[in-house]
Write a structure and sequence with these properties.
- The protein is α+β, with helices and mostly antiparallel strands.
- 53% of the residues lie in helices and 13% in strands.
- The chain has 9 helices and 7 strands, in the order E-H-E-E-H-H-E-E-H-H-H-H-E-E-H-H.
- Strands 3-2-5-4 form a 4-stranded antiparallel sheet.
- Helix 5 packs across helix 6 and helix 7 crosses helix 9.
- The longest helix has 22 residues.
- It is elongated.
- The relative contact order is 0.16.
- About 2% of the residues have low confidence.
Length: 252
């Protein structure tokens, strides 16, 4: 299911939502696609690694590094095929944040940004600009935390904004359950679905895929991060909503 737009207008231009979309796209295009090939040390000797893979290894969040449970030691990332690459890693706590702004390809980044635009503008409008950014970032941190708990020994870098965006989806479900989302259901259908149905079905797929995948991994998809972010957003969003302003008292 691919959301196209919803029927909820906003009172103000979603400055932070647009800024986050721009930052993610700039990081992907300038920081990942155009990153130079690097010569890195591996368990098989020096090897040339494409820039995008090198950036992912260096700035992606590797769960086992945070809890010192990596089989190959810290600052070593499994590239698959029994190739272990040593990277000049930024501090691992920083990668929890930097990993939220990296993506694995055009479909990954564009899909995430589509969801962020459709659902983020309304959530930002409801909780205010000052609250939206910390809510978004904290949702991403909680998402990374559940991904870590699901498989603390994973040496696979976790990247993408989907954990933080999942928090936005959980918030939208609580704030706008009666909204409608025009949805493309391949290959032929365009349907206005109730937001509550769309989001519950989306969340159900995350639960189903997480339960059927290997622990902590879902064929390259961090399903547990999606679950953690969504639950965080749904459970905490009421605390982020600004109370309505009291009307001015009449004077005589």
């Amino acid at each position: 299911m691919i959301p196209l737009h919803d029927n909820q207008p906003t009172r103000r231009f979603p400055v932070l939502t647009v800024a986050l979309i721009v930052i993610n796209l700039v990081v992907f295009v300038a920081g990942e696609l155009n990153a130079p090939t690097q010569l890195l040390h591996t368990n098989r000797g020096p090897a040339r690694v494409d820039g995008m893979s090198a950036v992912t290894a260096e700035y992606g969040f590797v769960p086992c590094e945070l809890v010192s449970r990596c089989d190959h030691g810290p600052d070593r990332v499994d590239f698959g095929g029994n190739i272990i690459v040593h990277v000049h890693h930024v501090p691992v706590l920083e990668t929890v944040l930097t990993g939220m702004f990296l993506h694995g390809g055009w479909m990954h980044v564009l899909g995430n940004m589509l969801f962020l635009w459709i659902f983020g503008n309304n959530v930002e409008d409801r909780i205010g600009r000052l609250g939206f950014l910390p809510f978004y970032l904290l949702g991403g941190l909680v998402a990374a935390g559940l991904q870590l708990l699901s498989d603390p020994s994973s040496a696979v870098p976790t990247i993408g904004a989907s954990g933080a965006i999942a928090a936005v989806l959980g918030a939208y479900l609580v704030l706008y359950p009666r909204a409608f989302v025009v949805t493309y259901i391949p290959p032929f259908f365009f349907l206005p679905l109730p937001a509550i149905l769309f989001l519950i079905v989306w969340f159900g797929f995350q639960l189903l895929d997480a339960s059927s995948a290997h622990v902590g991994s879902g064929g390259g998809v961090a399903y547990f991060a999606h679950i953690g972010g969504f639950v965080f957003g749904a459970l905490t969003i009421r605390r982020w909503v600004r109370p309505p302003r009291a009307p001015a008292a009449a004077t005589s």
